[in-house]
Amino acid sequence: MKRVFMTTCLALVLTAMVFFSASATSFANQASSQGQSPLSAKTFKHACTQAKVGFASCFALQSTTGVAAPGAQTHGLTPNAQSPGGSAPYGPANLAAAYNLPTGASVSQTVAIVDAYDDPNAASDMNYYRSNFGLPACTSSNGCFRKVDQNGGTNYPTADSGWAGEISLDLDMVSAICNRCKILLVEAKSSSFSDLGAAVNTAVRLGATEVSNSYGGSQSSSDTSTCNSYFNHSGVAITASSGDGGQYVESPSDCPHVVAVGGTTLNSNGTETAWHTSSSEGAGGGCSSYITRPTWQSSSVTGCSRRAVSDVSAVADPATGVYVYDTYQASGWQQYGGTSASSPIIASVYALAGGVSGEAASIPWSKRSNGCLFTVGGKSYSYQAGLGSPNGTGCF
Q1: Most distant CA pair in the chain, distance
Q2: Which residues does UniProt assign to the signal peptide (predicted)?
Q3: 354: left (phi over 0), alpha (psi -120 to 50) or beta
């Protein structure tokens, strides 16, 4: 029987205070139960500060020290869906292998990244990442990359180093998973839900077929209104991170028309478990306090009478994290994690699948019995990992 975690408002506040109180948080790297070697110890910090009510925080976790530049990876490999082919931090070929994804697929999709504030080095950092891994250039001159403000113009907001790290993570994950996709970066002028929501609407208006949101904040009684105003776009796959503070629900991942993306620990032998370092460190998830259960979601599976988070998942544990290249007040190559990584990964899998018509979040639920999801931790459903992680594109 699944266990539903009930917490009081005070407990949520105290948990958030503990989670964000230190500028750097240590995440233990443990050997897996399958006998792999333990990873070398690293510490990670939250890229963004704790958000006040009505605002969101990004969910990127970055290493407190740089990592060695990645070596060459083989592209065009046949993914084996068993092992990433190396140890963390993972690059594009590792992720393609782990999730049985095609490489170099030609698709006519535009993946939008919505974040707050400006990353002045966004385009150059992304293309350095792409060049290092042998991926095609994605620039404004070749029509692949576009960067706009929340209204669709070029009046970019104030730069912020924390959100710049988040932007780099997001752009690099789209590049890693769907390297032939067009990429649209929409920068909100602040981290308020109204500004971020306006940026989502702009992304859709400008033609995005997938929109990734790697941020969130506390649930509130206004969630239904916010969800309907900004996160309800039929025919567009809108993904949102479930959070990094352990098993409780963040918004906008609770929105009924959003694909709520949880997080996993991706071991070097290809096995995955729900990312759960401790009660306050790990992927978010649980039963929404305010959002009605969508018709496509089964309460007999989730144990929730309302909307359950998450739907699906991908790697998020920073200890088994990914390569990111960021130079805006940062040192270049770093190891990143958090459900900020899993949201753009899943958005890009939807793009590889050719986009959606109708309700994107319903697709994994309707197709889950077809073997197109990997079971995470031996469970057919869990709040932190949802129905599982991608096994190819068939569930998307």
Answers
A1: 55
A2: 1-24
A3: left
Query: Is the peptide bond preceding residue 256 cis, with omega within 30 degrees of 0?
Result: no
Q: How far apart are CA 326 and CA 122, in angstroms?
A: 8
- Which tokens in the block code for residue 207? 């033609």
Handedness of CA 90, 347, 280, 302 (dihedral sign): negative
Give the angle subtended at the CA of 323 by the CAs of 322 and 327, to the nearest 5°: 135
Please give the model's pTM, rounded to 2 decimal places. Answer: 0.89
Q: Distance between CA 173 and CA 316 in Å, rounded?
A: 12
* Identity of residue 110: T
CA 171 to chain centre: 11
- Structural domains in the chain, CATH included, are 78-390 (3.40.50.200)
Residue 216 DSSP code = E
**303 — alpha (psi -120 to 50), left (phi > 0) or beta?**
left
Model confidence over 119-171: pLDDT tens digits?
999 999 999 999 999 999 999 999 999 999 999 999 999 999 999 999 999 99
